[in-house]
Amino acid sequence: MNLKGQTKLPIPAPRQVDPEVLAHEIVERLTYRIGKNAAAAKPHDWLHAVILAIRDRVIDAWIISTQKTYEEEGRRVYYLSLEFLIGRLMRDAASNMEMLDDMQAALASLGVDIDIIAALEPDAALGNGGLGRLAACFMESMATVDVPAYGYGIRYVNGMFRQEISDGWQVELPENWLAHGNPWEFERREASYEIGFGGRVDPAEGEDAGPHQMRWRPAERVIATPYDTPIAGWRGKRVNTLRLWEAQPIDPILLDKFNAGDHLGALAESNRAESLTRVLYPADSSAAGQELRLRQEYFFSSASLQDIVRRHIQYFGSILTLPDKAAIQLNDTHPAVAVAELMRILLDDHGVDFAEAWDITRRTFSYTNHTLLPEALESWPVPLFERLLPRHMQIVYAINSKLLGEARKSGQFTDSAIGAISLIDEGGDRRVRMGNLAFAGSHSVNGVSALHTDLMKVTVFADLHKLYPTRINNKTNGVTFRRWLMQCNPGLTGLIREAIGDRFLDDPEALRDLDAFADDSGFQEKFVAVKRANKAALSDLLRKRVNARIDPAALFDIQIKRIHEYKRQLLNIVEAVSLYDQIRSHPEKDWVPRVKLFGGKAASSYHNAKLIIKLAGDVARAVNHDPAVQGLLKLQFVPNYNVSMAEVMIPAADLSEQISTAGMEASGTGNMKFAVNGALTIGTLDGANVEMRDHVGEDNIVIFGLTAQEVNDRRAQGYVPREVIGQSRELGQALDAIASGVFSPDDPDRYKGLVQGIYDHDWFMVAADFDSYSAAQRQVDALWLDQPLWAKKAIHNVARMGWFSSDRTIREYAADIWKITP
């Protein structure tokens, strides 16, 4: 049915949000939705009732937003991402709907502490790190700046994993966040789709069949069922939709097999389907793991595109106008197979000829690249791709023929350059290059920081950039300050409002007015008091969770991010070992008390990353219990780092560690969250650190180490790390202590291979940057001893971070890529 002429239904008047009305509604929902009276209700019952009361108000705005979009028939954004790390939603939604204070008062009148029940809400385990958190910030910002949008992803039952530390080692356990349901979501059975795998491809039959039209007959089918979560923008201006797909079998149980006694066989189809949405990033070190990952990516990409096309035709009639009404953004290469899937839908389901289908596809898609690591640009073995997606393999070959024909016709490429452009990597095992497919199938390809975008043009996409020189553009990442300042740091938010008023709540760049207070001793005193309270809150939390006792008066030095060698947690730990030696050797010096906190998950198959976590724990055990250190240095690895933990750790940080090897971090967003919460940054000129330096000022950030160009030059010139180590006494001693088993007496050889890797090749420049990093840390120590100067620099950081709002980023996407005027 075409809905363009659908009758507009009346919308209920907005509900009141005063405490008395809210208290009544909460008790009503407790009684009639949950089946409890107030006397019998447990904290989780109160949480559920509160969410339902908030949700009703979000739904009112949600319906208005959806109806407005269809009436105006404007262009809509569809954001495809394998991760959405949205975190807890109760406070976020209440704050954005401008009812948090009233809700707190309503609960207080009922004898309920909002902080206690809010802590019970599980973190939605839908992501791992920066990629997923960026997608969540973007969803909130799109609603805030009035961009109509759907986010599309997977409804993981268990998500990444829950990280526990056992004897210092990471242990992966299921993160069963959906165990007790999710009151924020709505199942939409009417929008389910069949997703196929395998089978054969036959020519289309009939007089109307086009020359490129085929019939794919999958051997296996599953059902993709959507669950919608409303995402409210600031002040409830717009509510957009996050649609997550769950995989279900067509036949949940094969009764003939079950009745014959083959109980496992009867459930095989069900288990196979459900495995698609059970775990985020299944380990891909095995062939089975690789197949499951590709199945996941096609499953959600196909379901999303079928949904987008169905909605478009329902409202606008013709598939040919799709680029005028739909802007599909690919968040990294995970949904890149969507390019081939849209071509399949256009060619086979709608009979569009190849040239027009390719034009529609390229005008519809845009692609965000998040990595310069060639191994992180996904590729799939051709036999696997062809077996699972035989029709898509044909389409990839056809696109490749067109692409390489263009390259040859231009006359500007050698055979090797044409090989680099190809969608098929012919070196070794033939593989389908998903990054090249996303690039070729999009009208826009953007990096996420100025440096990253410049490097894309000369590294991973150098030849494609030469072929399409206007396609790459930059959109520096940002974060939503509603969550990463206003919600997670109410003390600092209140202090800022007291100083400069409320304009920054709607316009983050108004934070610049705070610059005038950087030299104000009275404001500095209040600023430091807020930071101290945040540090005390983190100290209390760590004491309860991991029995760590840390002094809030110490310098809190925090590195929280995915554990990866390029992010260089290892450099941080090695410098801590060196500092440990210096403190013991020179007790007469005026050492700054320092607490080093680490958090992050290692991919389940990433051995060295797991070893780095173990090393952090081993070094902590030795340092924290050595009486010679006198408590001047402590280390702590914080297990199961997630959004909720970040919301406590980031406001408590004095020093933010952003120390990746230059040229390897695309942007970073943790660096932005720390700075706007009043932490100084120690970092390399990598990712968005470069732009942060430009905005906060060189005097208010601590930069060290090689630049991206210097890293490339060192590698090209034959970098010999052993020589560098030999010239640095402190580095050599620290590495020898680690390698010889000083911190692992139970297994003296545990870290020998890890250290040997630094001596032999040191791809991530740990040795090359060590002396510079160590000197920068001593610069930090000296600055810490001058507390008024430290406070001044921290205030400047807060004041000058407004440009790094995700609202600004989304406005740039809307204007330059999606061609939408909010």
From TrEMBL:
Its cofactor is pyridoxal 5'-phosphate. It catalyses: [(1->4)-alpha-D-glucosyl](n) + phosphate = [(1->4)-alpha-D-glucosyl](n-1) + alpha-D-glucose 1-phosphate. It is an enzyme of class 2 (transferase). InterPro entries: Glycg_phsphrylas, Glyco_trans_35. The keyword Transferase applies. Its EC number is 2.4.1.1. Keywords: Carbohydrate metabolism, Glycosyltransferase, Pyridoxal phosphate, Transferase. CDD domains: GT35_Glycogen_Phosphorylase. Pfam families: Phosphorylase. Belongs to the glycogen phosphorylase family. Allosteric enzyme that catalyzes the rate-limiting step in glycogen catabolism, the phosphorolytic cleavage of glycogen to produce glucose-1-phosphate, and plays a central role in maintaining cellular and organismal glucose homeostasis. This is Alpha-1,4 glucan phosphorylase. The gene is glgP.
